[in-house]
Write a structure and sequence with these properties.
Layout lengths: L3 H12 L3 E5 L11 H12 L5 E4 L1 H5 L2 H18 L4 E8 L3 H14 L4 E4 L5 H8 L5 E7 L6 H4 L9 H12 L5 E5 L4 H10 L5 E3 L9 H8 L7 E5 L1 H4 L8 H23 L2
Helix pairs in contact: 2-4, 2-12, 5-6, 8-9, 9-10, 10-12
């Protein structure tokens, strides 16, 4: 059985893409009223440009039972229509061992996500249940894209060893099954390069290049390693809300995702010359 790192690379190669489309269905922004209809419309529009999709659990959970039902339908839709695409459950779960075991079972067995974002604040105990699913990806929240994250995680100005460096270092020790990844924001390309140097073989999920205005070129170059381009660049709002008009949102999403894909590949190709 392949581990997640193999699945990650295969998905990127098959799609010829390093794009992850974030699914954040907000009824106040969507041009259609039904979140399932909205999500599958975006998925169909961007599937040719994306290697992965990342449903943000909060946007579904806030809608209660209807949201949970829609999320499961969205996950099933991707698996059935676009096998090989990675589906990442973005919930940043993490707790003491017994609770994390339930989180892991829910995300990987009930919701059937291929990967999940997790919070390792509780140490190895909080992520060990997730890592036991060898074929599932576990992306540790290492350096978030929001400015306030530095208050705890640290940055290049932090004295001593900041938390994000400690996380990246521990990731190497914890990646026994080859299914661990790191979430590092594109808004911190300098720190992203530090993380890559500390964890050269670990896949990265990189949010923040869209509405948060992270630097795409610097992030791609920082995320490159000797083993290649083992990363996904996530974009949510700048793709799915590229247009808020019912008649044009699909075409706009397709164009935005394709443009991101082309930009990333051009940066990668230029760096190898």
């Amino acid at each position: 059985m392949s581990n997640f790192q193999d699945i990650f690379i295969d998905a990127s190669n098959a799609a010829n893409s390093h794009v992850c489309v974030g699914l954040d269905p907000d009824p106040e922004l969507m041009p259609v009223s039904d979140i399932y209809e909205f999500c599958v419309s975006v998925i169909d529009a961007t599937a040719d440009s994306a290697a992965a999709f990342k449903p943000n659990l909060a946007f579904f959970e806030v809608l209660g039972v209807q949201g949970f039902t829609s999320m499961k339908r969205v996950v099933d839709y991707i698996h059935n229509k676009y096998p090989g695409k990675i589906v990442i459950g973005d919930g940043k779960r993490g707790d003491i061992g017994s609770t994390s075991a339930k989180y892991a079972k829910a995300l990987f067995e009930m919701w059937e996500f291929d990967a999940a974002t997790v919070n390792a604040y509780g140490g190895f105990e909080s992520i060990e249940p997730f890592l036991s699913y060898r074929e599932k990806g576990v992306f540790l929240w290492c350096k978030s894209s929001n400015p306030g994250g530095s208050q705890f995680q640290g940055d290049e100005k932090t004295a001593g060893i900041p938390v994000f460096k400690k996380m990246a270092t521990l990731a190497n020790d914890w990646n026994v099954e080859g299914n661990l990844g790191l979430v590092v924001g594109a808004t911190y390309p300098y720190e992203l390069k530090i993380v890559r140097d500390l964890a050269p073989g670990i896949p990265m999920l990189i949010p923040g290049v869209g509405s948060q205005e992270g630097n795409l070129e610097e992030s791609v170059l920082s995320a490159m390693s000797e083993s290649g381009a083992n990363f996904l660049i996530n974009s949510s709002r700048s793709i799915i809300y590229a247009s808020k008009e019912r008649d044009t949102f699909q075409a706009a999403a397709a164009e935005a995702a394709n443009l991101l894909q082309v930009k990333i590949e051009n940066i990668i190709n230029s760096s190898s010359r």
